[in-house]
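Protocol step 4 of 6.
Sequence for Molybdopterin biosynthesis protein MoeB (Ruegeria denitrificans) entered exactly as in the expression construct, tag removed. Do not edit the line below.
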Amino acid sequence: MTSCSNNGSVTRSSATPISAKKAHSYFGRAGVEFVDPRPAEIIAETTGKIPGARSISISDAEAGNLPPAFGDRTIHVVATCQAGPMASKLAEVFTRQGFPNVSWIEGGTQAWIDEGYEVIR
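Step 5 output, structure tokens:
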């Protein structure tokens, strides 16, 4: 079972760490895609997910198995997970895949919840 707690290490990356508040400022904007690498059962058991966030595993992203919306490499990708470590790893994968505008939420979806923002369970 794959989890994303805050006891993991954060990958150093060219992706930008952002606060949940900053991430929320991008929420619902055209050209922005939120992604979460956790399996559906882990999302349901933990924090839930940010509305509209796409579930894309790290292995699928590494293999280039991305939904059609990601054919446009100019989109802004915002990665999240439960607490941040998996999001930083996923963000790094997206930068290696050629996406120039990639961020990850410090504190993950839990930080999003702590700010009072909605999640889907």
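Step 6, annotate. Residues 5-12 have pLDDT under 50 and may be disordered.
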